[in-house]
Amino acid sequence: SAGHVNWDVTLRVDRLPEADGEASIRSQRQSGGGSAANVAAALAGLEIDTGLIGSVGDDDNGVLARRELESAGVDLEGVRIVEAGQTAVKYLLVDDDGEVAVLGNDGVNEAVGPEEIDERRIRAADHVHLTSQRPDTAAAIAETATEAGVTVSFDPGRRLGDRDYGEALAAADVLFANDRELAALLEDEYEYVGSDFDDRIVAVKHGSDGAEVHTPTGSYVHPGFDVDAVDTAGAGDAFAAGFIATWLTDGDVERALEYANACGALTAGREGARSAPTAETVAAFLDERFD
Ligand code: ADP
After folding, report:
1. Residues in a beta bridge with 11
2. Which percentage of the chain shows pLDDT scores above 90?
3. Residues 109-125: pLDDT tens digits?
4. CA distances (Å), 241 to each of 93, 127, 234, in order?
5. Which of 21-35, 117-131, 156-170 has the highest mean predicted lDDT (pLDDT)?
């Protein structure tokens, strides 16, 4: 997984602040975050060997972020520690419905350039997952993976509108987007319903309403699982991890969609962005639903 590594400060508020409004803070907790790091930790939790490419500062938050990822079982050899750098800190405001607003800075998150990518590690992988990061770095990783026949997935996240991720998009075997991001794809020069995306898997996430997946041979819809949403941060990352893990293992898109929804729902039901379930928890959750 390649992209951002953050330190998250989650603030529970009575309501998400309007442009000129105020919200009162009820509680605070901290944990690791950042889309790429969340996906890496979620994959490791699903018992997939996972390495992370990204950067943190040499500050306390960087130490904490690396420590959490290490104990989750993520290989951090590809994580650069930037001297005198500041690890990205995000403030996640979460309301009673689990809806999230994100503030904060990117710190040294974009320190890794295309020339720094360890190509051997990418060639040796079964799969590469790209998230929001420097477009030139994403392009270099995508190119190396494609040349080596390594499958690629891409979740551009909220940055899609203002950055040109053309190479990563072109390389992606699997593309993840929520409704908002899909709209950005449609608005842009990328043609979702055109030939550009007809030859790959496109997973569109609909929050509590589940998700749908379009493939060259057919489409699947999953209504999602009914859970009490506490904090939806990281749900999309857990969804991606669940989808990749299942798809890589057995190539079954419909099963991957169901598994991904279970991962997303379980993550929405727990606090923090780093709350993706283990393989055991997902199995128990799915058993319970279908017995
Ligand atoms: P993103 O975080 O990328 O915007 P979503 O919010 O759509 O993505 O969440 C990703 C997935 O997590 C959804 O497709 C769904 O499976 C699950 N999910 C998210 N929110 C909820 C919720 N409130 N209840 C149940 N499942 C949820």
Report:
1. 28, 93
2. 79
3. 999 999 999 999 999 99
4. 24, 12, 11
5. 117-131
Residues belonging to the chain: 291
- Residue from 209, 232, 285 to probe ligand 1 pocket by mutation (most atoms less than 8 Å from CB): 232
Cα radius of gyration (the chain): 18
E strand or H helix that includes residue 51: none
Residue with CA at minimum distance from ligand 1 atom 5: 207
Residue 185 has pLDDT above 50, yes or no: yes
With tokens 């749908």, the residue in question is 212
Q: What is the 262 CA–ligand 1 centroid distance (Å)?
A: 9
Q: What is the ipTM of this complex?
A: 0.98
How many domains does the chain fold into?
1
Measure Cα distances from 85 to 62, 110, 133, 202 in Å: 9, 11, 17, 36
Q: Which of 239, 246, 257, 270 to mutate to test the pocket of ligand 1 (most atoms within 8 A of CB)?
A: 239
Q: For residue 262, what is the domain's CATH number?
A: 3.40.1190.20
Ligand 1 centroid to Cα of residue 148, in Å, is: 33
- Per the domain annotation, does 92 fall within a domain? no
Q: Which helix (H) or strand (E) holds 192?
A: none
Sheet with strand 127-131: strands edge to edge: 127-131, 151-155, 174-178, 201-205, 211-215, 218-222
Q: Is residue 65 a part of any domain in this protein?
A: no
List residues with catalytic annotation: 237
β-bridge pairing 54-57 and 79-82: parallel
Q: Which two tokens stand for residue 142?
A: 């995508």
Sign of the four-CA dihedral 41, 45, 46, 48: positive
Report if residue 286 sits inside a domain: yes
Domain containing 241 equals: 35-55+73-82+110-290
125 in contact with ligand 1, CB cutoff 6 A:
no
Whether residue 145 is contained in a domain is answered as yes
